Amino acid sequence: MSEHLRTALELAASQIPVLPLRAGKVPFGNCRRCVDNACGGRPNMKNPGPCTCPGPCHAWAAATTDPDVISSGVWRRAWVRATAVAYHPGGAGLTVVDLDNTDAITWARAHLPATQTVPTTRGEHWLYLGAMQSANAVRPGVDIKSTMSYARWLGPGTGTAAMLPTLVRALVVKEPSTVRPAPQALTAPSPSGGGECRHRTPAYLERGIAMAEQRITEARSQVHTTVYRTFLAVLSAHGRCGCLTDTHVARLFTAAHAKGETVRHCTEAWTNARTRLGL
Fold first, then answer.
1. Helix (H, G, I), strand (E, B), or coil: what is residue 14?
2. For the chain, which ranges sit under pLDDT 70?
3. Cα-flanking dihedrals φ and ψ of residue 180, to 5°?
4. pLDDT attached to residue 184
């Protein structure tokens, strides 16, 4: 048994989906049966996951924890040719913040909570508990590897994995201006009578936003509908008094983005909710 195969089986036993990498740290290409993804197993948002092909030829979507598959003949031959073991962080409920240089590491130490850290050739992998959308170059020297992505296994590293912080989720939104649709529309006058707006009570507003984030995060189906209805509820309660800030809106968009909603979908849902309420 090769060293890579042994490592892969150990990781799989810990419910970490694995796949072999060939020279150049890249996955094995499609086999003859699946050339040009003729099998229909293309790993994309509409059809995520491997096809019935027995070979590890669909990158992150080929990652598995099944020891019978990992040890099968075609996979065993791949492990002989492999130069490294990779894993699917999102499939293991993890997010890897890939820090590619010393400047990126310095930034992470100043802004992110301490967590499990794995040295790499040029930098570090910071591992957090929780999956999210993957994205490259979210800031200089920083990539996010989680769902629909793979990362090299470089050992367990040191420290204990912390929960995925909101700041990391927010990194996938590269242009804050697109996350805050028409912020001026949220500065409607306070209720008549000159009294203090009840929503300005920090606990009242924070509870409402937190509940909205939770509702989006816990959606198991009809995510887009849930996002729209949540936006509608938030705007109905807080959209006319001027309490909502850009930060509150960004939190809602970040929660929706983490569930797979694009910035365009979020913007459309927000705009439609405002239109329905006449804001």
1. coil
2. 36-38, 40-52, 174-202, 242
3. -115, 80
4. 35
d(CA 74, CA 79): 9
Q: What is the largest CA-CA distance in the chain?
A: 79
Q: How many CB atoms lie within 10 A of CB 272?
A: 13
Q: Where are the alpha helices (DSSP H) in 120-261?
A: 166-170, 176-179, 202-217, 223-238, 246-258
Written as six digits, the tokens of 91 are 């499939």
Structure-token pair, residue 224: 């887009």
Q: Which of 111, 84, 85 is nearest to 97 (CA)?
A: 111
116's tokens: 């499990």
One-letter amino acid at 169 equals R
pTM for this entry: 0.62
Q: Which amino acid would we find at residue 87?
A: Y
Q: What is the pLDDT of residue 198?
A: 59
